Amino acid sequence: MLSKLTPALLQRVVQIVFALVCIFIGWRFYQFCVWAQTGAGDAVSRPAGVEGFLPISALLGLKHFILTGSYDPAHPAGLTILLFALCTGVLLRRGFCAYICPVGLISNLLAAAGRRLGLERRVPRMANTVAKALKYPLLAFFLFTVVVAMSGAALQAFLMGRYNLTADAHLLRFFMSPSHTALVVLGSLVAISLLFRNAWCRWLCPYGALLGLLSRVGITNIRRTTDACTGCQRCQRACPANIPIHEKTTVRTPECIGCARCVGSCSRQHALHVTVLGRPVHWMVLAVATVGLFLAFWLVAQLTGHWHSSLPPMMLKSLYAQAFTG
Question: What is the pTM of this model?
């Protein structure tokens, strides 16, 4: 059974499992919001995992944690997930992007659909270089706004403000009743993703940009043995980021997410391998370690009280009821 397992298949399985978890969390959060508004039926607890969809709030919580040593009481799970993602950048390339992020799964499915429909287009190397730089100004904007421009007092006020406390409810409202502008933007992103493989992840995602920069100094890499390589370029065709792996000895580019698809596509044994601190390891280590690290962060957060919001349940009910009526 394991002999038939490929990096692409393992990635897809792990992505689907986490996507199903996200769907369940979304459904439970919707039930919570309905209960908060109507009060009908048994009480429904707010699922903490929904905070994983609030990266800006988590970034604010991280700054507050660094400045004060105090964990975000409103969205502790969001901060925990952010810390986990940052660790994957240092330890496991961009393991969060490769295996955990549901947007990554959607991006991969759209890329596969584009190929099957004959819509996929190759981007010239120079154009790709310019396009993949677009995500860094977006990252710089968010980091400047949060890290530099926002004072400590403003940060504290925002974190405990009504909007941030119910930020996930506002996100739910956005997806339940999107504006025409939002539909046009989302539709454009879908169309671009059908034409250009993994366009969002490669060119536009500021979260991925941050993890990619961390991976530059990370301990995990893809290494090519030049003597064993035939230069067939199967690795580049398999790579979601279209990295010219056959031209490199060690892949350290921020675009590498650590999915190991290149290793699985290689026709020559030992031509490509995953390395940790310079030592070759089995390609499956990337997926197993990413999932294991996530479970470790979740378990520690549960045991230390840094997963569920510490705000009183009835206060949350009132705030979320107002978020849908205001």
Answer: 0.94
Quickly tell me which residue has 């959607």 as its tokens: 106
pLDDT, tens digit only, all 326 positions of the chain = 556 789 999 999 999 999 999 999 999 999 999 999 887 778 889 999 999 999 999 999 999 999 999 999 899 999 999 999 999 999 999 999 999 999 999 999 999 999 999 999 988 889 998 999 999 999 999 899 888 888 888 898 999 999 999 999 999 988 888 889 999 999 999 999 999 999 999 999 999 999 999 999 999 999 999 888 888 999 999 999 999 999 999 998 999 999 999 999 988 878 999 999 999 999 999 999 999 999 999 999 999 999 999 888 888 888 888 887 76
3-state secondary structure the chain: CHHHCCHHHHHHHHHHHHHHHHHHHHHHHHHHHHHHHHCCCCCCCCCHHHHHHCHHHHHHHHHHHHHHCCCCCCCHHHHHHHHHHHHHHHHCCCHHHHHHCHHHHHHHHHHHHHHHCCCCCCCCHHHHHHHHCCHHHHHHHHHHHHHHHCCHHHHHHHHCCHHHHCHHHHHHHHHHCCCHHHHHHHHHHHHHHHHCCCHHHHHHCHHHHHHHHHHCCCCEEEEECCCCCCCCCHHHHHCCCCCCHHHCCEECCCCCCCCCHHHHHCCCCCCEEEEECCEEECCHHHHHHHHHHHHHHHHHHHHHCCCCCCCCHHHHHHHHHHHHHC
- The amino acid present at 228, given as its one-letter code, is A
